[in-house]
RNA sequence: GCGGACGUGGUGGAACCGGUAGACACACAGGACUUAAAAUCCUGAGACGGUAACGUCGUGAGGGUUCGAGUCCCUCCGUCCGCACCA
């Protein structure tokens, strides 16, 4: 018996070169064939690929190769999300140009991806930092501007007063700048926005059409858009204390039904009323400053302790002239949502409750929960936010929550304050317009020229692309484009007078909002080639991390609609959705290790002693004990990283891919373990041994199919065809771990059959071997090619069709069904698949275990579920 | 704070539409082969009791619906993710 081990390192390179020479993954439009566009989220070129990429791209490649085998014309491209802050940080820290750094990273990572053996069409490679890409993005921006989809307005940013720079939320740590440590301030800047809110309704309602998206992502997006039906209510302000020119305060509420439970009004620190009041009250001004220092992150604001400041201003209740309520400035009211002002009903909202308890404001219950008694009902510190019956609410008493909403809304609409209705129904969205301005160098320049006379003027299209200057400096913080000596100085396209370029660049989410469109015709002279887009779009299967569930996916959904509305894109089918099916894969995690001194250690800096509960880690360099920490997402900061290059060099790409697909369900996190990889490596050798044995025992062609098969041969054939069926269905459902288990199970059967002899077995084993190779093809493509060649074929598995299983091999004549007595399993029964219910019942009642369990009693009832179960109720 | 998810043996997980819980794999134990080791092959195993046949318990906790619940409903506990300038 030949017993040479499969040499992955050598053979993988060989097969990659065969695929590359044959250009077999190169895609082109072919209207005569059904298409399948398979896409994984393109990577940020951070330096090296990580295990998360390996997992993501292994999954996408299985789908792409499987679809090819099922006869689809597959588009499977790859590119680089190449603009972003890390390049600029690298420039500052290491004095490398962001472009040089990025392109070097791309070269490294392209090489790493190629070593994975992915079935990619590399001829379509895109880098978003290339002028040939962002030129078209600038054109799209100009057309959005013409259409009113892009506009300018003032908005707040995190400002580091020491570094004189704008900070991202992630650069603000506990309210301080990450480099300078200075307290962060908020500044108003005029910035560019995309009018995503115009599409809010469509983006929300079309979620229903995305049936092949995870339910949770659709839910998250729906909540993010946050449509609510409420009212704008205008409250008169008591003239005595109100600042000049402020006679009323408009609030947005979704709960006009709880108006009689109101005990205060609150405005955001940036609300005009707050600013006006702060001018005459230094303490209030200080409080507002403090609120602003919390940063721009909603999470920070809402997690902070509820605090407020009584402005002394009093508002008059819309339903009772004699009822005055205090107006606070509060740190939990967001200027960006609604009108930046609320009325607080402590009994009906937990935040309001917390606030009321802190400042000793009245808490009046206005909604009686079902089943409670109005006399005895009491609230402690927990608000009741659900529906019920109105109490303590005068003319609303006794109404349901929804009827009270209607009644209060109708009255407010009829009532006047000044000469206008006091209330107006209003649909409000949590979704805000998308601010795309970034005060950074390494992004797509916004093609605008600011003229003293003509304001912001679009760059003429003939002047596109506006390219980034190469000779920018990165030795100090701030925007390198802004301080560049010459770049921004140009003449106004209208009047020819000296003017300045926009020095802000676009949010990198813009780059990734249409790259999948560009992939359909990466060389087109216009942003999109409509014919190519019609053929390939939408993406049939999109795969990426759950962390993109909201922003990237929502922005992309918006962006393609905006492209459609500016004539840049249209779909062949009746949809405006870019991604027909979405799959979000889990993260790759690993144990963490720390030295005695509390420093993080890389996995290869520790070795292990003992097993199970006695397993201990030892620091290799010093021999001192190390601490085994929790299992966490692989990250540089915790050093729990495994380098894909090391794994591929040691075990091969197929092994890394196989392990990534095994065990853990793809949507869940996977724990990377040495033992797991080693197990995958063993399976590869096992497949190779099986194939070697088959090739030696049954060389040459399979020959004609025997007229009949003995029981042993039949068993092999059944196992093979069932696996084929099950693996196909598992891959279709992206349940790769189940597909792997099915292949394991089948290979166990095949391996035991190798020791048996006979012409029918020979044929069945040859057939089973062929099928095994086809089945592992999408997951371990190199091994599959090697085995295919070993079995004597001179074709490529990559070009082989996925065979159809023989239906008669998928069903058994006999079925095993469980027999329960009173719901407890007592026995099982092997019976003909076609047995009638009465026969099954009779057979079950004769079983000794059933008779014993019934203890002589006659059965009260027998439930027979054909081919499944019998339950005897006694 | 708001929103979303997840929880099954020593471990990762499987279980179709409510129908035999623990497939498959890892780790482990015993055996075969070997001078030996590695590799490979065979066998075993949820927990508890029992020589065994078998019995009882068992899917984070508690309750409910049902002939039957890992699966459906309610309450609770724990873990994780997102929150708009990270990508």
TrEMBL record:
Signal peptide extent: none
InterPro entries tied to this protein: aa-tRNA-synth_I_CS (IPR001412), aa-tRNA-synth_Ia (IPR002300), Leu-tRNA-ligase (IPR002302), Leu_tRNA-synth_edit (IPR025709), M/V/L/I-tRNA-synth_anticd-bd (IPR013155), Methionyl/Leucyl_tRNA_Synth (IPR015413), Rossmann-like_a/b/a_fold (IPR014729), tRNAsynth_Ia_anticodon-bd (IPR009080)
Cellular localization per UniProt: Cytoplasm
Chain span(s) of sequence motif 'KMSKS' region: 633-637
EC number: 6.1.1.4
Motif ('HIGH' region): 43-53
Annotated transmembrane regions: none
Gene Ontology, cellular component aspect: cytosol
PANTHER family: LEUCINE--TRNA LIGASE, MITOCHONDRIAL, LEUCYL-TRNA SYNTHETASE
Family: Belongs to the class-I aminoacyl-tRNA synthetase family.
Listed name of the protein: Leucine--tRNA ligase
Organism: Hyphomicrobium facile
Gene field: leuS
